Amino acid sequence: MKNRALLKGIYVLTDAHLTPKATVLAQMERVLSSGVSVIQYRDKYATHEDAMLTCKALQALCDKHNALFIIDDRLDVARDINADGLHIGEEDVSYEEARLVLGHNAIIGVSCYGNIERALKYEALGADYVAFGSFFPSPTKPHSKVVPLEVLQKARECLHVPICAIGGIGRESIALVSAYDIAMYSVISAVFEDNAIEENLAMLQKGL
Question: How far apart are CA 88 and CA 51, in angstroms?
């Protein structure tokens, strides 16, 4: 059984530009060595072959560090490498299909944007965590709609699964989000800027 207790703290995502194929493994090794317990591979542009190779290596890295490895959207890759889990959004494969293919051992997270009803639906279906956001303008997802932080308060009041916040979270804004005492804080740009991964993660942790 996957260790769902690791769904906590800083949740670091890869990015096609900030963590390119040539350096992503070294960068995520540094992330995991800094104590992060869950990472996600998110690359909408990689070929299936590149995604397979990278994800296989990232899953091995996570196994070495006793961390969880989640893949964004690519159900076939998650199935073929027996990844720890999958993250799905509104336009991705359905939760029901993902659960059928990956089984009950896999971790499946669902993006809920600002929609509490959507989160309640997927909690009832068995999702392992739900994600809300963007809460701030995001350099990696510039077209994401910004939702009010108060959504997290409502989510805390009616949900029982781990809650993740995503979207533009950085060292200044993470404290605003952590005031809601949720499980996970999804971060991309703020981790990789200036190639100062360890220092950036240390600063982000201070805001929790």
Answer: 16
Q: What is the CATH number of the domain that holds 105?
A: 3.20.20.70
List the structure tokens of 33: 């060595």
Q: How far apart are CA 97 and CA 61, in angstroms?
A: 27
Domain count, the chain: 1
* CA 78 – CA 98 distance, rounded (Å): 10
* Residue 70 CB coordination number (10 Å): 26
Q: pTM of the entire structure?
A: 0.97
DSSP for residue 92: S
* Residues 139 and 173: beta-carbon distance below 8 Å: no
CB 8 within 8 A of CB 184: yes
CB 30 within 8 A of CB 14: no
3-state secondary structure of 200: helix
Report the half-sphere exposure of 52 (CA within 13 A, side-chain side). 8
pLDDT in tens, 121-164: 999 999 999 999 999 987 777 777 899 999 999 999 999 999 99
Nearest-angstrom CA–CA distance, 74 and 42: 9
pLDDT tens-digit map of 181-191: 999 999 999 99
**How many angstroms separate the CA atoms of 13 and 203, rounded?**
17
CA 170 to chain centre: 15
What does pLDDT average to over the chain? Answer: 96
Per the structure, the complete domain to which residue 21 belongs is given by 4-206
